């Protein structure tokens, strides 16, 4: 059985109090990480899973705030977080560490420099694996023992058996359907509790824009919230790719619009990132209608 990691002091009382009241922004609760959850259940479920020592897989569209969510969870647990950014080039050294030559006085010696997996295990910290389905299928099985009840790995570079200290846990994030991604194999997927991270909308998006951008004009903020809603709707209908509805890109547009015209800000931050001319034209037409 996996160990139980106690929640930070008073967090249970705070969460239960919030649950009994209303789904507000929770900004004061997670101010360190900067993620504003769309609903309370998302936050409660993630915290509950991590407090029981379970790995969490954040699944959702690009720009929905998965990395910010992971940072906020790290902040709530008062745990530093080591990160792995997956790609086709990810290998054992990127995960576990590497050997290098160094000197002890006059003597040249081989030293092992630990990577994010070994570091997070030995320090009892969080490990964040971003875009986990970008890694080659043969790479991540290296850490299967880290992700299950054993919480152990034999370091192939040193032959040391490393067992995770209390507090260690894993959060991963996945974007499905993108070029270069591969489906997670069942052995890997079964080692995670999956939490869907949707786009944030409405009042919570409005609060996020106010707290995370330089845009202060309420009427302009309302227009950007409407724009986001229309973009998300277009994505759901297959008219646009998910990149168009990225909350990260929307916040960039809000920031720029504090200094340059909103239409140009949207073009630079959202429309020009899209590959297809018809999608760029769709966003520009929508912008003309609103702004």
UniProtKB/TrEMBL annotation:
Residue ranges of domain AAA+ ATPase in the record: 52-201
Domain of life according to the entry: Bacteria
InterPro entries per UniProt: AAA+_ATPase, ATPase_dyneun-rel_AAA, CbbQ/NirQ/NorQ/GpvN, P-loop_NTPase
Pfam family, one: AAA_5
GO molecular function, one term: ATP hydrolysis activity
Name assigned to this protein: MoxR-like ATPase
